[in-house]
Design a protein that fits this description.
The chain contains twelve helices and ten strands. By secondary structure, the protein is an alpha/beta fold. It has two domains: 192 residues, 2-enoyl-CoA Hydratase, Chain A, domain 1, CATH 3.90.226.10; 47 residues, Orthogonal Bundle (Lyase 2-enoyl-coa Hydratase, Chain  A, domain 2). Helix 1 packs parallel to helix 4. It is globular. The structure holds acetoacetyl-coenzyme A (CAA).
Length: 257
């Protein structure tokens, strides 16, 4: 497929999607979001893609939803655009998604990173929910995912003051798993993608699904859900192969079945 707002490349076992509106710090407009969702739809179907890395450039992962595109919109227009249904699609992407964040990850940019499963930041990364300074609040999950990631008080401070946090703070607060020098950001994210891509795909999918379940259920039903996914994996060839390979002291060969 041909895209003009993103660049998609496939490597061995994983894919890289780079947001590509550098002139506006990768502001997320409707066209970019549509392409991103189309690309994820395609990559979800491709068996040789087991993990996806999402990144921007050194200046910005993404500086938010495109303000110019919504500045004059009315409530009814915003409702009709229903831009967040595409964000819901990303949330439901079945394969692991890694955000490699350099530069600004603000507003919708921070929310996009948080919609991913793992965030790796470079030293230049800055995270924030500055919507309050332009008269709104986060709309793509910021108040919910940030609060779950960093807790009520830090989320309140960020959302109500619009202040940015550094990569190091994001790591200390549990938002980013790692901070690496700028020049190593992609290498680090790709290495993690390679490691994940070397694992059995059905277990990856069910593991991701079970962790996400933890955010909208009780511990009791979350544990039940996890258990069922665990038992379900015993009907895969990869479980038989994984355990047999362990016993035979050799490397497993995954079939994705
Ligand atoms: N939407 C549209 N354009 C944007 C943008 C955005 N979110 N962020 C940056 N740009 C554009 C600027 O308008 C500018 O374009 P021009 O050259 O045509 O003027 C270009 O990108 C470069 O930006 P700056 O000149 O502002 O760069 P800077 O280095 O001086 O500042 C910044 C960088 C602090 C990130 C600043 O650009 C900024 O504050 N951006 C907006 C951040 C923001 O408020 N994000 C939230 C958006 S709302 C949202 O995301 C809602 C939601 O929950 C989904």
């Amino acid at each position: 497929m041909n895209y003009s707002n993103i660049i998609v490349t496939k490597e061995n076992g994983y894919a890289l999607i780079q947001l590509n509106r550098p002139d506006v710090l990768n502001a997320i407009n409707i066209a970019l979001m549509k392409e991103l969702v189309d690309a994820l739809d395609e990559l979800e179907k491709e068996d040789d893609v087991r993990c996806v890395v999402l990144t921007g450039n050194e200046k910005a992962f993404a500086a938010g939803a495109d303000i110019k595109e919504m500045a004059d919109a009315s409530t009814v227009e915003m409702l009709r655009r229903d831009m967040f249904s595409r964000w819901d699609r990303i949330r439901k992407f079945k394969k692991p998604l890694i955000a490699a964040v350099g530069g600004y990850a603000l507003g919708g940019g921070c929310e996009l990173a948080m919609t991913c499963d793992i965030i790796i930041a470079s030293e230049s990364a800055k995270f924030g929910q500055p919507e309050i300074s332009i008269g709104v609040i986060p709309g793509a999950g910021g108040t919910q995912r940030l609060t779950r990631a960093v807790g009520k008080y830090k989320a309140m401070e960020m959302v109500l003051s619009g202040a940015m946090i550094t990569a190091e703070e994001a790591k200390q607060w549990g938002l980013a798993v790692k901070v690496v020098p700028n020049e190593y950001l992609l290498e680090e994210a790709k290495n993690l993608a390679k490691t994940i891509a070397s694992k059995p795909p059905v277990a990856l999918q069910l593991g991701k699904e079970a962790i996400l379940k933890a955010f909208d259920t009780t511990i009791e039903s979350g544990l039940e859900f996890e258990r069922k996914n665990f038992y379900m994996l015993f009907s895969t060839e990869d479980q038989k192969e994984g355990m047999k390979a362990f016993v035979e002291k050799r490397k497993p060969e995954w079939k994705g079945k």
